[in-house]
Amino acid sequence: MHPCRRVRAVNDRNSSARRRWLWIVIALVLTGALIEGSILLAPHIHRAKIEAWIRGAGIYGPLLLLAIQAGQILAAPIPGLFVPVMAGVLYGPVVGPLVTSIGTVLGSAGAYAIGHWGGRPLAERIAGKERLSQAQDRMGGKRWLVLIPLFLIPFSPADALCFVAGIIEMGWRRFLTAVLLGRIPKDALVAIAAALGWKALG
User: Quick one: average pLDDT of 46-56?
Assistant: First the structure.
């Protein structure tokens, strides 16, 4: 190979590596900020207050609800079905499922990133040792496909499963596929059902 081409190839690889690390750092900073915010808000969070925040946010309500959905997956003590129900009731059968689905993807990706880059000690500090052990037992060392039915089952440790997927270094694409086929349909259906049920009740 010509020396100039060799230098160019090395520079391209170095540039690609720098971009990759830059995205990793950005993802970790955003995830850390979301976790810190969730932990600080956790003592003040309850359903009535969340609903008041969202209703008072006006046109920014969907963005606030999206952030709450992502944050509750990581740290906040909010029941998993609460946000999809609120999204459906407040924003209907189209916008509601969209908001909760985007929040679910972001929160699940954040939990996976923590498990993958932070390891089990950090994941245990955030999600709890018992919850992680329970989730790992559910997976039982099986293939990634087992995540799909586990995500679909109501009241399964879905949040902890995302941390575990990162800890065991499950492939990113496989994990995201499981989220799209398992978590998203369940949350979207809950939001749609809440929207239609609320509308039927008048």
Answer: 66
